[in-house]
């Protein structure tokens, strides 16, 4: 399996972050793919094609999500920059989100 998936969790409430806009961009800032998190806070396939080795950005529109959920947040967007080194691998990049902090890790 190749491509990229993501999962966003509301770390304050311990629930999926539904409706977060996500954009996958290449190193030059060009959009490769985009989507919106589902009822489980996931995008199972941000893109289905193998990613060419290089640097990518997964940009989450957290400002709109905070506004839609009546939350005063500090981060209008979260930009996770990561490196793809194996085009045959599936990459999973989760985001744990709260109004004044976030964390991420390389998932499986």
CATH class: Mainly Beta
Order of helices and strands: EEEEEEHEEE
Main pleated-sheet profile: 5 strands, mixed
User: Quaternary status of these chains?
Assistant: single chain
Number of strands: 9
- Radius of gyration, CA atoms, in whole angstroms: 13 Å
Shape: globular
As for the CATH topology, it is Immunoglobulin-like
Mean pLDDT: 95
Description of the structure:
The protein has one domain (3-104): Transthyretin/hydroxyisourate hydrolase domain (Immunoglobulin-like), CATH 2.60.40.180. Helix content is 6%, strand content 51%. It is built from one helix and nine strands, in the order ββββββαβββ. It has one helix at 62-68, and strands spanning 3-10, 15-16, 21-26, 31-36, 42-47, 54-60, 78-84, 90-98, 101-104. The chain is globular, with a radius of gyration of 13 Å.
